[in-house]
Amino acid sequence: MKRILISSGFSFLVLFANAQTGVKRAPDTLSDATLQACVQFALKHYPLVQQALLDEQITDRQIKSKLADWYPQVDLNANYQNNFQLPAVAFAGQTVRSGTYNTSTVGFALTQNLFTRDVLLAARTKGDVMNSVRQTTVSDKIDVTVNVSKAFYDVLLTEKQIDVLADDIVRLERNYKDAYNQYRGGLVDKTDYKRATISLNNSMAEKKTDEEALKAKYAALKQLMGYTAPDSLHLVYDSAQMESEVYIDTLTPMDYSKRIEYQQLMTQKRLQQADVKYQKWAYFPTVTAGAGYNLNYLNSRFGPLYKDNFPNSYAGLQVAFPIFQGTKRQQNIRIAELQLTRIDWDMINLQTAISTQYTEAMAIYKSNLNNYHVLRENLDLARDVFNTIELQYRSGVKAYLELITAETDLRTAQVNYSNALYLVLSSKLDVQKALGIITY
User: Fold this and answer.
1) Which ranges constitute the DSSP H helices of 24-116?
2) pTM
């Protein structure tokens, strides 16, 4: 018996611990955070997406709750009543008391809706209602995909700028030592090494600024991903692949039906058309069938009250039809029709907005793509110029000022190229969003 008790207690503690672990599970982490992995993580953990998925489940339950009114409704009612004084009844000019001191009734009632416009509307619009809430989820996922991708590129841009500055600092430290040694040797005056000191200090200060900005951008990326783990993210990317992904077919035709906003408006229009029919159904009666069976117990004494039963049963049909409501039904129909017409104008306005958004996104993309090509060429030229002047400076042909200028131009070209790559990838996302072809 002791063994059984000890074993049972241990098992209970294990189950309790597992239950607590299930409730407070550790947050998920990413070992290698590629762009695709970050997007998928966000779609799984970002609170707004999870809330949208919960809204789908809630809406599904609400629809089922509405449709439950089509099923027969069975009710049970029971009561007991003790009369301290029997009710008086006037009969043949005399007043007599009738009834019993103790009464009890147990009744079963069954009702079945045959025609009611509320349940009919729920039955006919259940597909569009669920489609509407699912489209909201899709819209949220598209926004999350775009925002996480842009934040991912923004972090990479800052990291690239820090790498560029780190390389620049290495070169400036070497130049500073060379300039200082030449000054100590009497070959040059102190101007060169002081200029080297200024450039080195500026680069180190700029690198520190970018490092602090990188922390904030990582925090923004984690927030968009729903990343709550204390572990730091390690972004993984392929520079060559990113460069190959800057292109998009600029001749892709605009198709409004691919935009989730257009699909949502079409669903809203169908729901409004159903509402017009719903208002017209107000001219039809509500028909309900019903049946009941009651167990009646009557006795002057409480003890033998439930020995004798006097049952009764019934079945019937109920028709409810409002004959005159002023012009309420007519006004409601007109309101629903006007709202439907308003949605048509919303669709025209949306098409215009989508067309404008697409034109602007494509223009910005083409401009950034051209800028990307120019800056990539400038980077190659700046690197060649720097390598040449550095050799000439060490050979004593060029002055140190020209080396600093070439070094500054190279750093600027590297930063501008990285920024151009980020901008063209970001603008490509805007074009894809305008076309309605974002995948997640």
Assistant:
1) 35-45, 47-67
2) 0.82
Domain 29-71+116-284+325-435 sits in which CATH superfamily? Answer: Outer membrane efflux proteins (OEP) (1.20.1600.10)
DSSP-derived secondary structure letter, 302: S
- What is the β-pairing status of strands 286-299 and 88-91? unpaired
Burial of 214 (0-12, 13-18, 19+ CB in 10 A): middle
Sequence-separated contacts (24+) of 317-326 with Cβ below 8 Å: 317/287, 317/288, 317/289, 317/290, 318/287, 318/288, 318/289, 318/290, 319/285, 319/286, 319/287, 320/285, 320/286, 320/288, 321/284, 321/285, 321/286, 322/282
Which amino acid appears at position 386 of this protein? F
Annotate 2-32 with b (16+ C-beta within 10 A) or e (fewer).
eeeeeeeeeeeeeeeeeeeeeeeeeeeebee
Burial of 380 (0-12, 13-18, 19+ CB in 10 A): exposed
pLDDT digits (tens, 9 = 90+) for 367-392: 999 999 999 999 999 999 999 998 99
Lookup: tokens for 200:
């080195």
C-alpha radius of gyration, the chain, whole number: 39
What tens digit of pLDDT does each residue of 16-74 get?
Answer: 444 444 444 456 777 788 999 999 999 999 999 999 999 999 999 999 999 999 999 99
Tokens of 179: 């300039």
What amino acid is encoded at 432 in this protein?
Q
Alpha helices in 185-259 (DSSP H): 191-225, 239-244
